Amino acid sequence: MKLLLIKPNYFGGTVVSEGNTIETDEQHGRELIKKGYAALVEEDSAHLPEPEPEPEPEPEPEPEPEPEPEPEPEPEPEPAKGKNKKG
């Protein structure tokens, strides 16, 4: 297991400073990670350059809302002619 040391650590008879990598067995590596002394180095990504992030597409502008048509005024009822005559 390959680890990146976060804190100096006594390993293999010497003190290894932070920022260096060490190769150790699975159990010892898990202990160092759990205690916060080291972080796991991914074997596959260590040799590959980081891919550049794809640029985010620009958001499409929202279409302007269509203006609501004004309601047509209702015609006023005309007074009834000749029906209510007293005579």
Quick tags:
18% strand; alpha+beta; three-stranded antiparallel sheet; 17% helix; 87 residues
Give me a quick take on this structure.
This protein has 87 residues and is of the alpha+beta class. The chain contains two helices and five strands.
**Quaternary structure:** single chain
Number of helix segments? Answer: 2
Which stretches are poorly predicted, pLDDT < 50 over at least 5 residues? none
Portion of residues within helices: 10-25%
Give Rg in angstroms.
40 Å
Overall geometric form: rod-shaped
> How many beta-strand elements?
5
Average of per-residue pLDDT values: 78
Strand order of the largest sheet: 4-1-5
Region (Disordered): 43-87
Pfam families: DUF7210
Domain DUF7210: 1-38
Protein name: DUF7210 domain-containing protein
Give your account of this protein's structure:
This protein is of the alpha+beta class. It has a domain at 2-47. The chain is built from two helices and five strands, in the order ββββαβα. A three-stranded antiparallel sheet has the order 4-1-5, with helices on one face. A two-stranded antiparallel sheet has the order 2-3. A hairpin with a 2-residue loop joins β2 and β3. 5% of the residues are buried.
